[in-house]
Amino acid sequence: MSEQIQIPEPATTRKAWKETDVGSVFVSNYPPYSFWRDENTARIKAMLHTSDPADKDIPLGLYMHIPFCRKRCKFCYFRVYTGRNSSEIQTYLDALGKEVETYSTLPRIAGRKLHFIYFGGGTPSYISVKHLRALVARVKTAMPWDDAEEVAFECEPGTLSQSKVEAIREIGVTRLSLGLENLNDDILRENGRAHVSKEIYAVMPWVKAQQFPQVNVDLIAGMVGETRETWRDTVQRTIDLDADSVTIYQMELPFNTTYSQAIRGGNGVPVADWETKREWHNYAIEQFAAAGYETSSAYTLTKKGRPNKFIYRDALWRSADLIGTGVASFSHAGGMHFQNQTHWDPYLKAAGQGQLPINRSFVPTEEERLVREMILQLKLGRIETAYFQNKFGVDILKRFGETYRELRDAEMLSFDSQSITLSRQGLLRVDQLLPEFYHKKYRNSRYT
Ligand SMILES: C[S@@+](CC[C@H](N)C(=O)[O-])C[C@H]1O[C@@H](n2cnc3c(N)ncnc32)[C@H](O)[C@@H]1O
Ligand code: SF4
Question: Which residues line ligand 2 (CB under 6 A)?
């Protein structure tokens, strides 16, 4: 799996990236996925078949990947399928249910309480209420989640109806996330979104009426066709929607998006450069701050006085255990990382037969675990040195002192003996700073 192709990507290469080149990504793990291999599968399976009393102190989450969408957005890099009919969806959900049942019997997992649940995609809200209720009933029988602290669920606005929003609330969802991306219809259409703003305005009252403990909306700064004026208008309209939290991504162009393929085929796609995206992102942060929102990570702002926790993110960035089910999903358990089969047929075959559908994995060293947690937590904007001293016995300001001093001199962050705090400029480009902390063998290479 994953031949090492030597195309340096921004996620592994520390330099001042100017244009939004193909290959940019959001850093979500370490070491880079291109270094994960299939040789370790037997080790992963052995680990899952052994219990460890220390696990009782490690929070456990369940991720379910629902890979269906109405249309493939031209910027999207997730494993998604369009045009699947109800019986194909049923087949997939059967395999997913079976996979959760398989996990629930493994010594490493059996009897452990679920702390958080995440329905991600693709578009979990694409599936019918009937499919959703049946999936939840089956999964909860295998792994109950009534005591979970968070049940998060991603939605594309145009897939929702009032009754579906009610059903999503009834299954226990506590954090509903809506992919708005933009409020300008021309931009939404140009970027291949299946919805326009009318659908966003239709769903908001249904969502409000259900009183979800937390409602998040996603925006992307730098969609094709965006101008300073359209972005300002989108920011104002999003403030007016009064969500509890807003997540703002800067447009990335990983290799597998429709836009990336067009660019590599010689057809230019006008995506704003990094400086422009940072300027727009910064503008949004300031406007949201003036409207009562505070920064909770490089991407997320939460409204003061409203629920501001995002348990899934915080648990993952502190190396909680996560069972990632569904095609191409990522898991972490027993200190090891692994990913499921990335294509429909091999995934369905293995999961449907009650086998673990694992494709590739990585067993990190203690040093790699430390780097992983440190770079992911830097995305929160502030880290405490004591956390790393207690967990890894390492003074990170000594171990990475030179890098921290360089970043401080470049005004990306400041630190004292207790904490490290990113500046606004540092936060706005955090993904491009992180490769500085990678071991040199993981730099200047492919990330995915
Ligand atoms: C799985 S989608 C959310 C749910 C649903 N599929 C949707 O799009 O409405 C996760 C989010 O990733 C973000 N995203 C996807 N592709 C992106 C890209 N190329 N650059 C930046 N953000 C991206 C979008 O904000 C999107 O809402
Ligand atoms: S951004 Fe969301 S709706 Fe668009 S293709 Fe990706 S997962 Fe589907």
Answer: 69, 72-73, 76, 78, 80, 121-123, 156, 179
Domains 1-14+366-448 and 15-315 share a fold: no
HSE-CB of 370 using CA atoms within 13 angstroms: 20
Domain ranges of the chain: 1-14+366-448, 15-315
- Are 210 and 165 a contacting pair, CB within 8 Å? yes
Which ligand has an atom closest to residue 119 CA? 1
- Give the pLDDT confidence of 371-385 residue by residue, as tens digits: 999 999 999 999 999
Give the residue from 192, 155, 157 showing the smallest Cα distance to 177. 155
Distance CA 127, CA 139 (A): 16
Residue nearest to atom 4 of ligand 2 (CA): 73
Q: Does 259 score more than 80 pLDDT?
A: yes
Q: Which of 184, 291, 287, 303 is nearest to 235 (CA)?
A: 287
The CATH architecture assigned to 1-14+366-448 reads Orthogonal Bundle (1.10)
Q: How does pLDDT run across 282-341, given as a tens digit for each residue?
A: 999 999 999 999 999 999 999 999 988 999 999 999 999 999 999 999 999 999 999 999
Distance CA 272, CA 401 (A): 34
Residue 371 Cα to ligand 2 midpoint, Å, equals 30
CATH of 15-315, one of 3.65.10.10, 3.80.30.20, 1.25.40.10, 3.60.120.10: 3.80.30.20
pLDDT digits (tens, 9 = 90+) for 211-250: 999 999 999 999 999 999 999 999 999 999 999 999 999 9
Alpha helices (H) along 41-85: 41-48
Write the CB contacts of 259 (distance below 8 Å, at least 6 apart in sequence).
Answer: 74, 75, 224, 253, 269, 271
- The two tokens of residue 16 are 């001042």
